[in-house]
Write a structure and sequence with these properties.
Number of strands: 3
Helix content: 40-55%
Strand order of the largest sheet: 2-1-3
Number of helices: 2
Largest sheet: 3 strands, antiparallel
Number of domains: 1
């Protein structure tokens, strides 16, 4: 049974490196920035899984009555 107090993990992907992982939400920004700085000269190559990002954008738009 999932712990309701547990922080959600967010899937991130880096197609250039061929990697996919899940990162706690609180570590997301720094993990992406660090990876992209180390591996891709700061270019935003690694990112939140696009399918998850799209779904999140849709949920936010609905919540704000934009759809």
């Amino acid at each position: 049974m999932p712990d309701s107090d547990a922080e959600p993990d967010v899937p991130i992907v880096c197609e250039e490196c061929g990697t996919e992982t899940r990162i706690p939400l609180s570590d997301l920004a720094s993990t992406l920035e660090n990876h992209n700085d180390r591996q891709h000269d700061g270019d935003a190559v690694a990112q939140v899984d696009p399918a998850v990002a799209d779904e999140l954008a849709t949920l936010i738009a609905r919540d704000l009555d934009l759809l």
